[in-house]
Amino acid sequence: MASLNKVILIGNLGADPDTRYTASGDAVCNIRLATTESWKDKNSGEKREMTEWHRVVFYRKLAEIAGQYLKKGSQVYLEGRIKTRKWTDKEGQDRYTTEIEATEMQMLGGRQGMGGPASSGGGGGYDDQADYAPAPPKNRPKPSFDDLGDDIPF
Fold it and tell me: How does 95-117 read in b/e, with b if 16+ C-beta sit within 10 Å?
């Protein structure tokens, strides 16, 4: 039987990201993400809300991006998986933490607090396009009408 461990969340950061680096130099960024569910109570007719808090961890390049561009209150879409890790506290007791290991992230909402004008709208906010820049054009001569040949179908 197949299994799947996948989480998709859209929520808001409860605090600024906490970015640290491992001994090998890899970035690790932790955030607390709030997701809020709202509904209308059938009995009283009142609007109800319930907020759930999630521990989310990013690794390597995604951690650097999250640490640089996310701020308290930022709205973010993320995908990842649930992981439980074991660690030892100061008293030598084994502890377990269950968190979401994010593998994909998309910043949502405006760009307030991310270095851009508030009215620019749209999602994103990741301006460092060095990793995604298109390849420079090769030095090819521009095509001319003479290059089309006589194979015109009309």
Answer: eeeebbebeebebbbbbeebeee
Round to whole Å and give the CA distance between 114 and 122: 13
For the stretch 15-51, pLDDT in tens is: 999 999 999 999 999 999 999 999 998 888 899 999 9
Mean pLDDT of 125-138: 45
DSSP string of the chain? Answer: ------EEEEEEESS--EEEE-TTS-EEEEEEEEEEEEEE-TTT--EEEEEEEEEEEEEHHHHHHHHHH--TT-EEEEEEEEEEEEEE-TTS-EEEEEEEEEEEEEEES--TTTTS-GGG-SS------GGGPPPPPP--PPP-GGGGTT----
Does this model's pTM top 0.85? My answer is no
Count, residues in the chain = 154
